[in-house]
Amino acid sequence: MDVLLPYLSDYWRQYLEGAMIGLHGLIDAYPPGAPTSASERARSFPAPAVPSGYPALRERVLDEADAELIVLNCLTALEAHRNPYYAAALATAVNDWVRDEFLSRDERLRASIALSIAVPDDAVAEIERRADDPRWVQVLLPVRSELPWGHPSHHAIFAAAERHGLAIGLHAWGRPGQAPTPNGFTSTYFEDYLANQAVAQSQLVSLVCEGVFERYPDLRVVLIECGFAWLAPLLWRFDKDWKGIWREVPWVKQLPSEYVYRHVRATTGPAHLPREPRAIRQLLETIDVGRLLAYASDYPHDHGGGLPRLLSELDNERRDAVLTTNAAALYNRARPDRSPDRDGVSAP
Amino acid sequence: MIGAVDLSAEDRTEGEPLVRLVDSDVHAQPMPATLMPYLSVDARRYLERYGRRTHNDMHAYPRARGAGTRLDAWPAQPGAPPGGDPELLRSQLLDEWGVDYAVLQVLNALDCYDPADIAVELPRAINDWLTQAWLEFDDRLRAAIVVPHEYAHLAVREIERRAPDPRFVAVLMPANAQELLGSERYWPIYEAASAHRLPIMFHTGGFIRNLGAGPPSYYIASHVNTSPAMQTQLVSMVASGLFQALTNVRIVVTECGVSWVTALRWAMDSAWELMGPDHPRLERRPSEYIHDHVWFTTQPVEEPAEPQHLLYAIEQAQLADRLLFATDYPHWDFDSPTQALPRAMDAKLRAAIMHGNALELFGLRPVRSQPSPLATP
């Protein structure tokens, strides 16, 4: 938190110090002791596991990685703060710090824009503030939300992201201290951790049903750290329902699965997969991972050893797509050519 | 065991037909006036004056067209809801499709925010009405016991009251309650049900708060969301240690989908490999608890473009002896007994899903003493 103080006004510095406010709220998405919070390698360095500055990032990640581009996601849980002005100021401070501390010091680095959505105008203003700097490649939002992400109250954010060729990243966790499941509070971290993938499913449903991908045909959404093995059954059900009751949402003009594969990507972690190669091969028949997945080391987190098992079942083409080209396309800020007749669809 | 319902000679009388089709999710629905004769004077007066003040948004937001029911399932008599006329249900479901047993689930009390006295009387009235108007009407009908689930000790009393009647073959709970379903506040219900060898059926509906991602705007979204919502409920039940503590408990996930359990088992097992040692209530892999304790009704069964993919899910999640066919009559998304399952499914597996698994789970006789008039071969 101290590193952000230079980026905050006197008023907010006093506010912070007086209230002893931390960045993350009271419930930590990554309790330091939890096995999932840090890999063995991450634990070989002094705490905290998340690199808190460029030297640590370089030593722990950059010097080891043979990645050409690395996207930093600074998880801020800004939605935990009730004070909307503070949340907006903090988002700006976080992004200024990420720019100065990381982006300006290594050409391989890209980053996601931290955002407070408490006031939509502030969120859009923060996107506009960063838009001219091509090192920002994504708008970062928590997968958990008060209103589903497809809801029209969020569309201004999507419009701004689309306008500037920024992906929308929905990252696991969010809304710390509030119920993570549709039906209420969990008791264990185990449940809280697994709730992310259920919430991600509801968000996909919302984005499709609200016609977001019709309104914003160039928008790309990335599910970050929410898993992916669950996708096929969701789409089977969703497609079946759409065939029966699409009249309720006539602006949804195609099968939900078509929107999802065109507009949505998921990171490779967590790859919660079984050990039997046959099961993984069957999964690969049901999910087009060559289109869907973008590699993420998710440093410093540890979700088990599923990814190598997945990669070992992929042919070279799909392996290359997952490890390189999907993410490269996703985070390419150059705007794709648009067809002149953007098929405008209006919700009621 | 796949559909291996043993028919020893002494079980079967000459001429008795074998059971071929069990429908595990069928809805009877009373009008409020229907239940009034079964309620106490006090409860009647209270309900007549104030109505129920529960938080069940299922019927209001988002709005389902035609009350979410088949257009042809509305009875002729004015005011009667779909599932309100035993004659119509008999002709449209039991006779038309040759259903040998149908398990009735009355959803009207799935939300349970009534004051305790009302919360007790309402399920009791529904169960009395079920018995008189339905179970006595056709011997193919069975029912799940409606209970005041938010008052566990009172729910236990209702289970004890109905358990002696073998036509009640399960206990009904909502997929969404005040707390996550693994919560120990509900364990007395699970324990009482299991003591009577009654499975607990968790049906979509109840008190849906839509936390986590927020409330969906449309019925179609809420309908798809029942799958991820139930995923978090299964995680809750496993994590709570329910299946380790109550080794006889059998639950049925009803109308929430099926094939997602494959990936959920992988996710839970992966998480357990990392965190298991910190959870003494999880001695075994989560997938083992799920297989030992959890059944699924099929409707609305996922229909992948490649039907084979559904069979993958059944294989990977070991569902062959855990799936129970259901139509969900009279709701709009009725699954046809002849069309809903992939044609590529082998006969043994199909038989297990269409009747074998349900016969075993519900303890039903595999032969019917009275043939249904129009049973199809």
Key phrases:
A: 348 residues; seven-stranded parallel sheet; 9% strand; globular; B: 377 residues; alpha/beta; TIM Barrel
Summarize the helices and strands and which ones pair or pack:
The complex is a heterodimer of chains A (348) and B (377).
Chain A: H1 10-19, H2 40-43, H3 54-62, E1 70-72, H4 84-101, E2 109-114, H5 120-130, E3 136-142, H6 155-163, E4 167-171, H7 189-209, H8 212-215, E5 221-224, H9 231-245, H10 256-263, E6 264-267, H11 277-286, H12 289-292, E7 293-294, H13 306-311, H14 316-330
Parallel strand pairs in A: 1-2, 2-3, 3-4, 4-5, 5-6, 6-7
Chain B: E1 22-26, H1 32-35, H2 41-50, H3 86-97, E2 101-104, H4 116-135, E3 141-146, H5 152-162, E4 168-176, H6 187-195, E5 200-206, H7 219-239, H8 242-245, E6 251-254, H9 260-275, H10 286-293, E7 294-297, H11 308-316, E8 323-324, H12 347-362
Parallel strand pairs in B: 1-2, 2-3, 3-4, 4-5, 5-6, 6-7, 7-8
Q: Name the chain pair with the biggest interface and residue counts per chain.
A: A-B, 71 and 67 residues
Shape call of chain A: globular
Q: Which CATH architecture of chain B would you pick?
A: Alpha-Beta Barrel
Q: Count the beta strands of chain A.
A: 7
CATH topology category name of chain A = TIM Barrel
Task: Provide a short characterization of the protein structure.
The complex is a heterodimer of chains A (about 350) and B (about 375). Chain A is α/β, with parallel strands linked by helices and about 350 residues long.
